[in-house]
Amino acid sequence: MTAHFPPDRFDCARPPDSAAPERFRAANAGAAVFIRQKSGGHAMLAVAPRRIVLTVAGSIGSEHIVGVLRDAEVAARLGSDAFHALINLADYSASVDWQDIQAIREVMPKGASRSNKNAYVVRNSFYAMVAKITGVMFPQTECAAFTRESEARAWLGWN
Fold first, then answer.
1. Which sequence spans correspond to the domains of the chain?
2. What whole-number distance in Å separates Cα of residue 135 and Cα of residue 144?
């Protein structure tokens, strides 16, 4: 089932930036980086010890989001169950498929350490609701939504 909700009024995602993957790699130096791109969007994942950064932008299909996580799983980078995650959806503009959220849950570590945090950067109330729902799917993990990446990073203790 796919939920189709319009973004908040006058609140649309920016078009994806073609230079974003290189900036993402530079910002996550030392991490294993996985990127899936297509015309109109990208899914980028950086995995480092105790830290996961997932940035999704544009109208990329959810199969690319699941795919980038599976790429990291195959590379044995998602083995740790103790981590904080920053999930940036601020520039994501595609619909959300609930089956894909379940697929993401299957791939991601579950946060059994009970000390994990997921910080979601969102642009509107719909994506904040998606963040809240995913928080229910990861009951061992503390989740919060923010409109600014700097606030999310501070909450994670990354500043």
1. 15-116
2. 8
